[in-house]
Write a structure and sequence with these properties.
Muramoyl-pentapeptide Carboxypeptidase, domain 2; binds zinc ion; about 45% helix; two-stranded antiparallel sheet; 8 strands
Length: about 270
């Protein structure tokens, strides 16, 4: 009798141990689920089966994502000056809803973004004290204006006997399609020297142009299409075309001899 009772108690103990073991196993399996948040702010979920090595692998790949070649200095400049740094080129047309605040310049003859107004006035005033004066040939151009420039040139080519498609292709070699011109941002200016208003490479021989190229960054402007970078910008050397990007970005871009495209490349995947 005592032996039977002992046998039953032993059986109960073994059963209890087994049941609590199973409960513990299930609980621990659940608590292994963890969530880690990377520096980039996104979270990575690890499931309960992940080993330590797996966790390290996930952490490593989250760091890898963080460092997609982005240059910290460029990112810092970009985050503070984003509104001045919009990129417009053949591969990056402006958004359809791109809007800007314009201000009259050159005694009401032209309009440009209000962002550059004060800097332009200061730059031209300082140049004047050095003995240089300029003729601003072009500033803001609307989408429609750019399209009409393209149409005009296409008509000229077609007048010479070219078919429409061929004429358009020819025109796009020199003229940006509507939506892709920097002038539509209101941040670009074609600045010619008063003594030579030819919009060609002869500008670079002018002391006034040299002064602009050397000093524009102090006022937030860059030479947008440098001589040796046409393979990157897709535009031939234009010593007259200056682009406002804000003082901080201009200093960085000009000192490091970059184009806006190269600056963007340094930002990584933004
Ligand atoms: Zn221009």
């Amino acid at each position: 009798m005592l032996k039977k009772l002992f046998k039953n108690v032993l059986c109960c103990i073994i059963c209890s141990v087994l049941v609590s073991g199973i409960i513990c196993f299930i609980f621990l399996k659940g608590s292994n689920k963890a969530e880690i948040t990377g520096d980039t702010g996104y979270s990575v979920k690890l499931n309960g089966n992940a080993s330590k090595a797996d966790n390290e692998k996930v952490k490593y790949s989250s760091d890898e994502n963080k460092n997609t070649g982005a240059d910290k200095k460029c990112l810092g400049i970009y985050s503070k000056n984003q509104k001045y740094l919009i990129l417009a080129n053949r591969d990056n047309p402006l958004p359809k809803d791109y809007s800007l605040s314009l201000r009259y310049i050159c005694n009401g003859r032209l309009q440009a973004s209000e962002y550059l107004y004060d800097s332009l006035v200061k730059m031209l005033a300082d140049a004047k004290t050095e003995g240089y004066s300029y003729w601003i040939a072009s500033a803001y151009r609307s989408y429609e204006k750019q399209q009409s420039l393209v149409d005009e040139d296409v008509n000229i080519c077609m007048g010479r006997g070219m078919a429409y498609e061929a004429a358009l292709e020819e025109v796009y070699k020199e003229t940006m399609p509507a939506g892709c011109s920097e002038h539509q941002t209101g941040l670009a200016l074609d600045i010619l020297c008063s003594g030579n208003t030819n919009m060609d490479v002869s500008q670079m021989e002018e002391p006034g142009n040299k002064w602009l190229r050397n000093n524009c960054y102090k006022y937030g402007f860059i030479l947008r299409y440098p001589e040796d970078k046409s393979n990157i910008t897709g535009v031939n050397f234009e010593p007259w075309h200056f682009r406002y990007v804000g003082k901080e970005a201009a200093k960085y871009i000009m000192k490091n001899k970059l184009t806006l495209e190269e600056f963007y490349k340094k930002l990584g995947n933004i």
